[in-house]
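Slide 14.
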Amino acid sequence: MWFKRELRETLARLVDTRPVVVVTGPRQAGKTSLVRRAFPGYRYVSLDLPTLAAQAEDAPAEFLHRHPPPLIVDEVQYAPGLFRHLKREVDARRSRNGQFVLTGSQKFNLLQGVSDSLAGRTAILELEPLSCREILRGKPRVGLDDLLLRGGFPELQAVDGLRADEYFAAYVATYLERDLRSQLNVGNLRDFDRFLRACALRSGQLLNKSELARDIGISPTTANTWLSVLEASNQVVLLEPWFNNATRSMTKGPKLYLADTGLLCFLIDILSVDELHRSPLRGAIWETFVLIELRKRWRRARPAGRVHFWRDRQGEVDFLLHQGGRFQALEAKWSEHPSPRDGKGFERLERFLGAAALISRNIVCRTTEPFPIVAGLGAMGIHDAWFEGDQGADERRRD
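Slide 15: predicted structure.
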């Protein structure tokens, strides 16, 4: 099954306007499938194969002679020496756009090569796992619990008989053995596996690096390095707080989230619907799911936009969407029928920002239909959650 990706039109536009386009994102997010479907007339070569990666690294000029543009180079970060020669090829035909489409899952190494050699010649596009909207277009009957337990990796959603626990066990093993060892000096893979699971248990919580390091038995410096690599490889999200310099009582540290709820459920050993509904962590899983969806939709509507949270010593609001000096405020609640009490954080936020600064206040919950809770406060399901500037809102209503 193929899921239509919402970024395909953006990708086509960038290829029409830039000599090089880089598509990055986590492993198994669908980067290769997207670019090959979008550009069937391009030559294709994957540096996932060690022999080809060695050719591209050791003899880049000869490699590019054998594989001239227009060319897709998959997992290009495995041959960092290729970037300088790509620059020469691009400059020889500077007015020709769409010469190279590059993909890579190790964002730090990839973007370093781009900034060093291809600055001013490249557009960068980040592809995340499938959004709820993309999955529902391909599988309109999929249930909410299945979305949470299986997450957004395309293969896992496309193949119903594929067990999520087996898929993620292989995913984690491959990620630890291959990607991490190439980026970090991980002396003990067991420690890193425990670190990954400790991050999962803290999804939706304020990040305390010292506590995280102490629980695993590693140094704070090591914890910080490992966390940076997890973030750069799109495995975790660090959600920054909204604050200004005049608010000394505001929380300044980020909150930690896993970037996919399927992987999150696997890492905290939730494998069935019954375990999900009985788990004391179900609220954190739901909050993670809502954040993931908001980020995807908000970044698509406003490429420079970011999601924040707000918190002071007495109150918190899960998500703020900043829009021209005003905010859309959202809370994530597992309940199907949230009460006015669930919106108490909005009251303190309103006192802090002022009523005129709030565009809307909504609780994103497990309801099947949106409904008002009290005046100025609404409840909506994840299928209905949208915001001003979401280019897919009208289309979703028509669907």
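Speaker note: Residues 12 and 39 are 9 Å apart (CA to CA).
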